[in-house]
Write a structure and sequence with these properties.
This protein has one helix and 24 strands. The chain has one helix at about 230-235; strands at about 10, 20-25, 30-35, 35, 40-45, 50-55, 60-65, 70-75, 80, 85, 90, 95-100, 105-110, 115-120, 125-130, 140-145, 150-155, 160-165, 175-180, 190-205, 215, 225, 235-240, 250-255. It starts with 7 loop residues before the first strand and ends with a strand. Strand 7 (about 60-65) and strand 8 form a beta hairpin. The radius of gyration is 29 Å and the shape is elongated. By secondary structure, it is mostly beta strands. The protein folds into three domains: about 1-35, no CATH class; about 45-120; about 125-255, Head decoration protein D (Virus Head Decoration Protein, Chain: A, Beta Barrel), CATH 2.40.300.10.
Length: about 260
Amino acid sequence: MSERFTGTVEIVDGQGRQVFKFDSSFAVLDLGALGNEGDLRLRGDDGATKIALDGGQQLINVTNAAGTTVFRFDAGNSLLDLGPSLPGGAGKGDEADLRIWGADGQVKIHLDGSTGDIKLSGADCAEDFEVEETEEPEPGSVMAIADGGKLRRCAQAYDKRVAGVISGAGSHKPGIILGRRQGSGANSRIPLALSGRVYCRVDAEYAPVGVGDLLTTSPTAGHAMRAEDPHRAFGATIGKALHPLGRGTGLLPILIALQ
């Protein structure tokens, strides 16, 4: 038989201190009192504590089936431990992994405790820059450095001011973005791929592009082209083409290699 009630439930200890209070109006549960901190312990069917919230030491402790601590958050020292760690030393067991999922159900960031690797689903390392143009350039556009240090779309062949390619075009998204902050005034900020793989706007009307061809800036605004003159390409190279483009313009995956 079930019972329903409204209001609060209060429990006091032997000294009359309120150590338990549940307020149904606000769905608030308080444990502990001055001089008598609250603890919450969840036990398994074997009688052992599996999850412990220690109000006195400000600890959250979780154990696995073997009784080894695998999750420990120490609020007093702002410390989070994942894996078979114990307060007095290292334990043994399965390593800890931390995975952050995206809205598409795919892992975007994976911290692998077994190998010590940080695995990112993005394909390039980018950094935010302010753009000189009032209209924000499209992802994949080739950018050059303007007189004021901001960026503009390239508009000439073999431009030694080339800075990189705007990240985010096609299926290649940035893995790391440095310097992320809001633009000032009317100037927007865009992530510029400085290394890794990125989709780049390429114009093959100047020359067909093959796999492995070096790319440089072209007279077509925001587009790269095949670098045919090695002397002019020195200092104006964007990267290497990963797919061919026989004619026309298009988005091409490239390997950023500024030089």
